[in-house]
């Protein structure tokens, strides 16, 4: 008995449908692409960098919700995370984890202290030599609540972060940034070839 062949149109339709399902599954559970729109993470990330974010690392979420159904791991000090901006969840922010649950975080004269120890991070920059009498340069001490994180931008003097709007809840984190896959300088429309393929640390 012969095997009935599928029509070419049906084969293409099925292949196309499968590709869409796989793409949506990967985007929902594994990897998602984001573009850097601001300079708060300079020099680590530049405006126009296009990055990939590992969404699986911190747990599997129920689709279209913030509910973590399968915990995998938790963010650690130094991780660069993408998350829903607490004051407007329609926007995504990217910052570095400075404080994890239970940590005591303080900023004195621009210097960051975690649990009483000064954090010396060579990836951080300051563009303003002046010490301001505000939250930017003097903050805390505060204790990071359970299930929350204290985050800051690497461009410390030009970053809107936990010093100003508080903590990031774990279930609002989209994932960990791990790779720059494309970089474009919108000012002079040149591709930054030296940044493509760079691992984000």
In short:
This protein is mostly beta strands. It has helices at 8-29, 162-165; strands at 31-35, 49-54, 60-61, 68-70, 80-84, 92-99, 104-108, 111-114, 117-118, 138-143, 148-152, 168-169, 173-185, 190-191.
Global morphology: globular
Sequence of secondary-structure elements: HEEEEEEEEEEEHEEE
CATH topology of the domain at 31-99 and 149-195: Umud Fragment, subunit A
CATH architecture of the domain at 31-99 and 149-195: Ribbon
Name of the CATH class of the domain at 31-99 and 149-195: Mainly Beta
The total count of helices amounts to: 2
Spans with pLDDT under 50 lasting ≥5 residues?
none
- Our Rg estimate from Cα atoms comes to 21 Å
Distance between the termini: 60 Å
Helix content: 10-25%
| CATH homology superfamily name of the domain at 31-99 and 149-195 | Umud Fragment, subunit A
Count of extended strands: 14
Strand content: 25-35%
Architecture overview:
This protein is mainly beta. The protein has a domain at 31-99 and 149-195: Umud Fragment, subunit A (Ribbon), CATH 2.10.109.10. It is built from two helices and 14 strands. The strands form three sheets. Strands 1, 2, 5, 6, 11, 12, 13 and 14 form an eight-stranded antiparallel sheet that branches. A four-stranded antiparallel sheet has the order 9-8-7-10, with no helix packed on it. Strand 8 and strand 9 form a beta hairpin.
């Amino acid at each position: 008995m012969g095997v009935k062949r599928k029509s070419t149109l049906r084969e293409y339709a099925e292949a196309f449908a499968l590709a869409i399902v796989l793409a949506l599954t990967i985007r929902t559970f594994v990897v998602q692409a984001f573009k850097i729109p601001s300079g708060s993470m300079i020099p680590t990330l530049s405006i126009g960098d296009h990055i990939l974010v590992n969404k699986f690392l911190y747990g599997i979420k129920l689709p279209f919700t913030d509910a973590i159904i399968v915990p995998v791991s938790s963010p650690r000090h130094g991780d660069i995370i993408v998350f829903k901006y607490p004051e407007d969840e329609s926007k995504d922010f990217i910052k570095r984890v400075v404080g994890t649950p239970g940590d005591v975080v303080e900023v004195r004269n621009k210097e960051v202290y975690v649990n009483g120890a000064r954090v010396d991070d060579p990836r951080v920059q300051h563009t303003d030599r002046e010490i301001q009498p505000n939250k930017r340069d003097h903050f805390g001490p505060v204790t990071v609540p359970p299930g929350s994180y204290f985050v800051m931008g690497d461009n410390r003097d030009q970053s809107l972060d936990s010093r100003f709007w508080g903590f990031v809840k774990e279930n609002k984190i989209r994932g960990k940034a791990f790779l720059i896959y494309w970089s474009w300088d919108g000012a002079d429309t040149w591709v930054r070839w030296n940044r493509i393929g760079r691992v984000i640390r």
